[in-house]
Amino acid sequence: MLKYAFQRVFWMMPTLFGISLVCFAVINLAPGSPVEQALSKMRFAGSASGGGNAMGVSDEVLESIKKQYGFDKPMHIRYLVWLKNIVTLDFGESFVYRQPVIDVIIQKLPVSLQFGVCSLILMYLISIPLGISKAVREGGNFDIWTSVWLMVLYSIPPLSLGILLQLFLGTQKFLGILPLTDLYSDNYFQLDLWGKIVDRIKHFIMPLICYTVNSFTILTMLMKNSLLEELRLDYVRTARAKGLVASTVIYKHALRNALIPIITGLGSFLTLFFGGSIVIESIFSLDGIGLLSLKSILSRDYNVIMGLIFIQAALAMVGRLISDLLYVVVDPRIDFQ
To answer: Which domains does the chain have, with CATH numbers?
Structure first.
């Protein structure tokens, strides 16, 4: 297994190289570069010096702006410099925040990390027992009605769900029991310990629901179908024929094998912690990685965009490797050669 892990890590390198090369080229070839935006701001502010340049500024000013943003070199040279710097996690400086990219990401990470961890735990705590219950009661009223509700919840987009939650739970027109946005109230730091805990929980509820709903519905149905498939296999029929108790057959024999497909979902947990959600963070004004991604794209903050893409790609591959290794934990019969 160690040999397999080392081989996977080795092949991650060219994959990351390919991803970074393609993304770097696409981002830099897209219209609306930081240089163009800087020139537009200068023209809008009326600070153009009226040189002969077609952009309305002198050649000296244009060259100075290009040098400031690192666009005074050809694109392939800029990529090689960027590639050399990421060995030390130096993704350059953010054009917007005027700070090192890694520092900007670290500042925004705690918000997305909190919701990522909580949603992952909540998702598995709900979906696995619910999926098992639906499989055991297949075709019954419990299975039918929970399937209906799961399909309804899955069909609601996070944007619509967030707005509905804010309308019914956050406005005084209806219940008005939860805050609409942000991570904590304005008077948060004046509250005692218990008050702070309650305040954070209230601010967590609506975003956490939006983070969890779609994922847990998929995972619940996957758990149910996986267990049903195991319960129909010959070894389960043999165990029942030998007179084993139903609970022993389900929880000791079938469930262990049924969990193997569920382990695949754990491969996304690293990106879940890091990625955040652009839609949810925008709705609830959460200053996390998702909102940082949106702002960076809109402002053409190339260094931040490349930093986010590279880190998320690396975490996705590491997460996938962890999922593969967890197969062995769940089912020792699996052996990677």
So the answer is: 16-88 (no CATH), 101-330 (1.10.3720.10)
